[in-house]
Amino acid sequence: MSHDLPDGRLFIGGEWREGQGAPITSTYSHDGSVNMVLAGASAADAETAIAAAKTAQADPAWRNALPQDRARILTRIGDGIEVAIPRISQIQSRDTGKTLAETAALAASAAGTFRYFAAVCETADDDLTTRRGTSLTASVHEPIGVVGAITPWNSPIASDAQKVAPALAAGNAVVLKPSSWSPLVSLELARIAEAAGLPKGLLSVLPGSGREVGNLLVNHPDIGRIAFTGGTDTGRMLGEQAGRKLMPISLELGGKSPTIVFDDADLDVAVAGVLFGIFSSTGQSCIAGSRLFVQRGIYDAFVAKLVAATQALRVGDPFAKGTQVAPMINHAHRDSVAAYVAGAFDEGGVILCGGTAPDDAARAAGAYYLPTIIAGLSNDAKTCREEIFGPVLCVLPFDSEEDVIAMGNDNDYGLACGIWTRDFPRAWRVAGAIRAGTVWINTYKQFSASTPFGGDGASGMGREKGRAGLRAWQRQKGIYCDLTGQPHPWAGVSA
Ligand code: NAD
After folding, report:
1. Which atom of ligand 1 is nearest to the CA of 181?
2. Is the CB of 148 under 6 A from ligand 1?
3. Can you give the pLDDT at residue 5?
4. Is 464 considered catalytic here?
5. 98 alpha carbon – ligand 1 mean position (Å)
6. Thinking of the domain 258-441, which architecture would CATH place it in?
7. Is 384 noted as a catalytic residue in this protein?
8. Which residue of 12, 33, 138, 431 is most buried, as measured by CB atoms within 10 A?
């Protein structure tokens, strides 16, 4: 199969140019072959992009654009993404090793995000606030100016869209730095935005080193906000830097999300949901349901069913129809997952299935790892506490609702939770008691552009999506307009 990849030039201040930074290699993790070596962005490229963004954003044609005019461009970008789904999904599957079905869904989600924020942009009202004196009072929202978006490799076009769409809708110019493990699809997004008529300079796409380009964005005096998605250690560091600059930053970070199966759950529904929650995207998902708690009375039966279903998953070529579990992003990441599983042995873990790379010739060169279920660990074990970001599920029994709430919350992360039960009052109680930015009841990994998403604790701060997702990219200003025409009485001057 031939793959029509972007040509490797970067989109810097509205121009397609070779980057001046260190080379980036995009690999196809099914067989380890090289998709492309491209020159990444340098600090100088980032400076060029920021300067162009500053000029473009200051242009009244953009800064003061009527909402319907901004919305029209966003809608065109969304439509452009939708038309290009077959091409985008091919590029992203080559770049990340994800299945075509997954990458097509991510592209469709990105298209929806642009159209959603077009609608939010058109319908967002400023407020005339209740008067409590002699002035007419209003609260209005203005663009921040030049903003930055830093994204990870696991769902590039969807996480890019979650930042770029509301940032543009809010009237900003955006410099996007995607991960150097997945540079290609974000460049395709730039091509679509350009074709949709986005004025030059309002979007730059700079795949490159996090330490060089990402750091520069966060610390640059002309960048007024950053939205970051990535690992907790990186997010913590960037949060400190943003704090020193007194710059708003949103942090979408890692997770170790609990999924809870009560003994009255529909077991087939729960098995399917738990499998999808942990093993789709080969577990490389911030919201992966990686800690499974099963009520003791059904533990043995449920786990047996789950293991059988896991062993039946189709693990293979991302481009093959019907593949459920594709290779991981690359061999280095696969090896870090394998190291966690090796560590689980030392913690007393029992591997119920998987725990190794597949050993057949068809997958030998790829970054494959079999879906793995580990029992026998304590909730305190490193394997249960830390994000592995791979197809590894820890399963633990629990006795009561109170116990499982305590165990679920006994973790630094607070991103997501799944609850499986037919008892809806209980589901609602547990949903309220669990620390998580998102809770799914009898389902998992469902998303809506209108539902705010984000994490608590080590999973980050701030929310993306939803109508408030636009406001995060704006400054709020109160305006008081005198209605009396009289001198202030304090001054003792009579008119
Ligand atoms: P990462 O933190 O290594 O990198 C994320 C981005 O930050 C990349 O673009 C990277 O180049 C950049 N970066 C790295 N060091 C930097 C620095 N010093 N300064 C500025 N930028 C820097 O994360 P990753 O391995 O690419 O992604 C996986 C992580 O992302 C996982 O922890 C996962 O849970 C998390 N994630 C979270 C969400 C969410 O919405 N909460 C979604 C997807 C992924």
Report:
1. 26
2. no
3. 84
4. yes
5. 18
6. 3-Layer(aba) Sandwich (3.40)
7. no
8. 12
Beta carbon of 214 within 6 Å of any ligand 1 atom: yes
CA atoms of 260 and 417, how far apart (whole Å): 8
**Residue 28: pLDDT band by 50, 70, 90 thresholds?**
very high
Domain locations in the chain as residue ranges: 10-253+459-479, 258-441
Joined tokens for residue 8: 């490797």
Ligand 1 centre and the CA of 387: distance in Å?
13
The model's pTM is: 0.97
Mutate to test the pocket of ligand 1, among 286, 287, 334, 445 (most ligand atoms within 8 A of CB): 286
Q: Is the CB of 253 under 6 A from ligand 1?
A: yes
Q: Tell me the pLDDT tens digit for each residue of 373-429.
A: 999 999 999 999 999 999 999 999 999 999 999 999 999 999 999 999 999 999 999
Record: fold of 10-253+459-479: Aldehyde Dehydrogenase; Chain A, domain 1 (3.40.605)
Annotated catalytic residue within 102, 188, 194, 252: 252
Same topology for domains 10-253+459-479 and 258-441, yes or no?
Answer: no
User: How do residues 76-85 score in pLDDT, each as one tens digit?
Assistant: 999 999 999 9
Kindly give the number of the ligand 1 atom that is closest to the alpha carbon of 237.
18
CA of 230 from ligand 1 middle (Å) equals 2
Q: Say if residue 495's pLDDT is above 80.
A: no
Catalytic residue check, 194: no
What is residue 1's predicted lDDT score, i.e. its pLDDT? 43
